[in-house]
Design goal:
By secondary structure, the chain is an alpha+beta fold. Among the domains are: 47 residues, no CATH class; 51 residues. It has 3 helices and 4 strands; from the N terminus they run αββββαα. A two-stranded antiparallel ribbon has the order 1-2. A two-stranded antiparallel sheet has the order 3-4. β1 and β2 form a beta hairpin. The radius of gyration is 40 Å and the shape is rod-shaped.
């Protein structure tokens, strides 16, 4: 019975590890959890995430940097990303205000053009003389 429970536990652990590997592949590159083997010394290996800094000890041994240094680096990356996003949002807000002002200007121009188009246009030049001549002809015919 205990062997069956141990095997079930092992199977669950393997399934959980597989799920972690799949979810790590789907994550954002900034939080990539792929592991890299870095040689520490002959016959030894160091398993670390890609971006974990390493330190070279005086005796030639390579060791991982302190977790505080790694977390500090990660928080700096996140802060930089937030600052970049904040700058982009400010640029977009400025652009939106400019576009709203342009829209108001264009709507005002459109309204003025529509009002002008609705008003009767006075005739100029030879068209006005012809219209006056036609009015005179119709006036003299209606006469006495």
């Amino acid at each position: 019975m205990t062997r069956w429970i141990a095997r079930a536990g092992l199977a669950l652990a393997i399934a959980g590890a597989a799920a972690v590997v799949v979810s790590a592949q789907e994550q954002d590159p900034m939080t990539d959890d792929r592991m890299v083997v870095k040689p520490q010394s002959p016959g030894h290996q160091l398993l670390l995430p890609n971006d974990w800094p390493i330190e070279h000890a005086e005796n030639g041994v390579i060791k991982p940097a302190a977790i505080e240094q790694y977390l500090s680096m990660k928080f700096q990356q996140v802060r930089a990303r937030f600052e970049q996003t904040d700058r982009r949002i400010q640029q977009l807000e400025t652009r939106l205000v400019t576009m709203e002002e342009e829209r108001k200007t264009l709507l005002t121009r459109l309204r003025l053009l529509e009002e002008r188009a609705a008003q009767p246009q006075p005739m100029e030049g030879s068209d006005a003389k012809q219209a006056q001549g036609q009015e005179a002809d119709t006036g003299s015919q209606a006469g006495p």
